[in-house]
Amino acid sequence: YIHYSIKEFIKLQSIMGNTPPSKTKTPVTIKTRKSKASFQVPKSKVLANIEGDSIDTLNVNLPEGIRMTGGVKLRDDGYTGKGVKVAVIDSGVDKDHPGFNGKVVKQVWYRSGTPLSRDYHGTHVAGTVHLMAPDAEIYDYRVFGSRGEYSIDQAIVLAIDQARVDGCNVINMSLGGPFPFPPIEAAVKRAYDAGIIVVCAAGNEGDNNPLTNELSWPAAYKECISVAAVQKRDGLPVATFSSSNAQVDYSGIGVNVLSLKPGGDVMRLSGTSMACPHVAGFIACLLSKSKADERPNDEIVTTDPDTGVFCGCCRGGGNDAAGLGNPVAPSSLFGIEGDAALRKVLNEKFVIDIGITGPDNETGLGFITYLSKDELMRLF
Predict the structure, then answer these.
(1) Catalytic residue at 121?
(2) Dihedral through CA 35, CA 142, CA 249, CA 361, nearest 10?
(3) Is 273 a catalytic residue?
(4) Whether the predicted model's global pTM rises above the 0.85 cut
(5) Do 240 and 214 meet the contact criterion of CB atoms below 8 Å apart?
(6) Of these residues, 112, 216, 273, 290, which one is catalytic?
(7) Which residues on neighbouring strands pair with residue 142, listed in sequence order?
(8) Quick check: 318 pLDDT over 70?
(9) Per annotation, catalytic residue among 121, 124, 130, 278
């Protein structure tokens, strides 16, 4: 979870417009101005690797958090995020890490200056997205670093808008601040209105008391899915550091999470930052345009009802009102279009109530997983 300071929030910033500059280089690595703000990648709790942790075994023996979220079953059923674009707005991603298998397809860095060996947060977060949804494409938007042409809050606004322009389906933001910030809220609303699912870490300011509220933005915006962190133990107890408030929607595994480390290795971290990409990756799987080893929906060869000729332009009754043969945009296998439809599917099929019965401020509606309760319990 990346936290930005009160000082940064109270600075007046001009909104950069609805869309980022069209001539932004990829990646942007301008080093013209040092950050004067106290924004930093928080020291997510780093835990020692255990015997067997290695990049060679990571895809063979998926991490516990991935398995508990249903990663193995999703693969078996063919839901791997194929045709889905996931934006990771964070501290930068090591795109050449062999664990990504070439799935980091675009990088736009609004800030830099700090080596990824120190800013490992983004690579770890993106790694979890990839392990959950191995066929999804990852778009890396770096908004943290010691130098950059834009302030961090400006960079976040630009990154959200660029993700929208790039056609991303899901945005993962394992970051936050103590107050709402209107330009970021406006960018989130633009993404939401475009049908993008915005998933955010609930925050690491929890005091282990569900009766107190620790709010963080952008997670607290109603357009965002706010994800709390739970432990990999029987009953899925909430992590003591996880922020609690009425805006928490769901929970994911966020303690002792194994994922990728810049430079080709693996590492373990704890935080709501780690819970967030479990849920974002799971959502990417639900948004899959086609199953693994199948042609995408917009490439399905169908038969023209009038001529009997096989063609690729009349898929499923399309939107070709003018008779021009233009296919409709491919939809997900679960028929999910937008935030409201996604929440309906999640709530009906993929949430296991944990903690107190019903919605609560610590875990929201419950733990997101593709597994049944019995299947999940068998993992303990």
Answers:
(1) yes
(2) -30
(3) yes
(4) no
(5) no
(6) 273
(7) 90, 109
(8) no
(9) 121
Contacts of 309 (CB under 8 A, 6+ apart): 303
Angle of CA points 132, 137, 139, to nearest 5°: 110
User: At 253, which amino acid appears?
Assistant: I
Residues 11, 240: Cα–Cα separation, whole Å: 32
Instruction: Please report the beta strands in the chain, taking only residues with DSSP state E, as ranges in sequence order.
Output: 2-3, 45-47, 85-90, 104-109, 111-112, 137-142, 147-148, 170-173, 175-176, 197-201, 224-230, 250-253, 257-261, 265-270, 302-303, 310-311, 351-352, 367-368
Nearest Cα to 190, choosing from 11, 12, 20, 9?
20
Angle, CA of 113, 115 and 120, to the nearest 5°: 125
Read off the pLDDT of residues 15-60 as tens digits, 9 standing for 90 and up.
344 444 333 434 443 333 444 443 334 456 777 788 788 998 887 7
Contact 91, 109 (CB under 8 A): no
Residue with tokens 């994922």: 259
Average pLDDT over residues 350-357: 94
The pair of three-digit structure tokens given for residue 80, joined into one six-digit string: 């791997």
- Phi/psi region, residue 319 (left: phi>0; alpha: psi -120 to 50; beta: rest), is alpha
DSSP 8-state code for residue 188 = H
**21 upstream amide cis, omega within 30 of 0:** no
Set 3, 35, 44, 90: catalytic member? 90
Q: 345 and 332 in contact (C-beta within 8 Å)?
A: no
Q: Decide if 331 is catalytic.
A: no
